[in-house]
Amino acid sequence: MINFNATAFEQTWLTKYKKMSPRDRLFLEIMTFAFIGTQAEQSDISVKKIKTNKLVNGITETCYQYTITVLEDEQSARETNMAKNRN
């Protein structure tokens, strides 16, 4: 398990979160919960990172595509609906 100062982490996370677009906020939330879940070795969230190369204006650029899979059961479906209603 990774040790870190929880208060400093929370402050940094919230500062970044407040400056993000709604789409980026959702991504940060998912990645945070995925990370926390992997640290506890119990996670219903998996993240797959795929490296691709794209040609942009004649230059090959490396891009990453993230596929996020969330296993949904009855309890998490209720939590998801509650989170949607909060926003």
TrEMBL record:
This is Uncharacterized protein. It comes from Enterococcus mundtii.
